[in-house]
Amino acid sequence: MPLSYAGCLCGIAAMVRLLKYIWAAPCSLFGLGCGLFLLLIGGSVRQVSGILEFSIGYGNPIPFFPFWAITFGHVVLGLNESALEYSRAHELEHVRQYEVWGVLFFLAYPVSSLWQLFRGRNPYWYNYFEIQARQRSGQKRLGL
Ligand SMILES: [Zn+2]
Fold this sequence. Notes:
The protein is about 55% helix and about 10% strand.
């Protein structure tokens, strides 16, 4: 029986998806290491939409964790379940960015921040990748 056209497309889509995971894997591994640390201090993990979400789960025992959530490849680290849910659309846009840039995202993101700092602007708010994530996730200026 010949392979149907739809079956062929499904196979290609699965292959492209696998390649995106492989391309972003170095960043995901870094996030996984951070996530394992969160588990050691009492955090939790769950799988949502093909990504792993690690949660500290209570307050903020890590004073230098100034984010509600942060993404490394296909891994998102968040303060708690509510923060992860609230920021999910935004963080999924960062996942998509990692799928495009791969490990180069670890260079491109800080370069964009430094460029904005050099221009006298807020390095987080005017970072190209943050602007894109806010726009694509539907967040407004006063949102996250
Ligand atoms: Zn962001």
